Amino acid sequence: MSLRFVALLAGSLLAGCASVPPAALPGREQIREFALEARFALRITLPDQAAQSSGGRLSWEHRNGGDRVLVANPLGYGVAEIDTTPTLSRLRTANGEVHESPDADGLMEEVTGQRLPITRLPAWLLGRSDGTAEISKDSYNRPARLREAGWQIDYAYDDEAPTALPARLTLSRDGEIELRLRIEEWKENP
Q1: Separation between Cα atoms, residue 176 and residue 16, nearest integer Å
Q2: Predicted confidence (pLDDT) at residue 23 exceeds the cutoff of 80
Q3: Beta carbons within 8 Å of 43's beta carbon, 6+ residues apart
Q4: CA 130 to CA 7: how far, in whole Å?
Q5: What is the mean pLDDT of residues 128-143?
Q6: What's the mean pLDDT when you consider all of the chain?
Q7: Which of 24, 37, 62, 168 has its CA 20 to 30 A from that of 121?
Q8: Are 168 and 155 in contact (CB under 8 A)?
């Protein structure tokens, strides 16, 4: 797997914490810090290039204004790790390469050639906007679709509770990138 593809995979995303049953989690508006375990499927279709697909698992921890995303292949072997803080972002690959930048989105552009919305992903997971998004709600008043900065995020839920967190998300941009997440577990206050 090429470094470019691995970095794109890692960037399109989000560990060791006590699990909380989904019904016990507060509503999305009260959550500030979280961790999640998910499976993913990624498809990249860039102009004049063959489509690339990959899948695997990810562990994502969002706390203290930063993120740590661990990406593994379907067999559980680590592929990449991204650590972001307000002042530094670092991408480490399985072969030991390290890339750093003060700007997470810029780091992804430098490594992959694509400006990826790393800084927006934690909010988008919870159906939140920076004030510029168009958000459609479902019949339970939960986010069903969010459009912001050229990206579309579609949400699906496993239960009908108005405060339920999404179990499935599809993030896409212009038919070039599609990331499907199946969130298996949400954790509050990692």
Answers
A1: 33
A2: no
A3: 51, 52, 53, 177, 178
A4: 25
A5: 93
A6: 84
A7: 24
A8: yes
**Can you say whether residue 188 is alpha, beta or left, with left for phi > 0 and alpha for psi between -120 and 50 degrees?**
beta
Distance separating alpha carbons of residues 63 and 48, to the nearest angstrom? 39
Residue identified by tokens 């699906």 is 156
d(CA 52, CA 151): 19
Axis crossing angle, helix 3-11 with helix 104-112, rounded to the nearest 10:
150
| The predicted structure's pLDDT at residue 98 | 95
Q: pLDDT band for position 5 (50/70/90)?
A: very low
Q: Each residue of 79-125: pLDDT tens digit?
A: 989 999 999 999 999 999 999 999 988 888 887 777 778 889 999 99
Domains in the chain (CATH in brackets) are 3-188 (2.50.20.10)
User: How many C-beta atoms surround the C-beta of residue 113 within 10 A?
Assistant: 11
Considering just the CA atoms, what is the radius of gyration of the chain in Å? Answer: 16
Place of tokens 């995020």: 153
Question: Are 167 and 180 within 8 A, CB to CB?
Answer: no
Between the CA of residue 20 and those of 17, 182, 187, what are the distances in Å?
9, 17, 6
DSSP 27-76: PTTT--SEEEEEEEEEEE--TTS--EEEEEEEEEEEETTEEEEEEE-TTS
Q: What would the two tokens of residue 35 be?
A: 């961790």
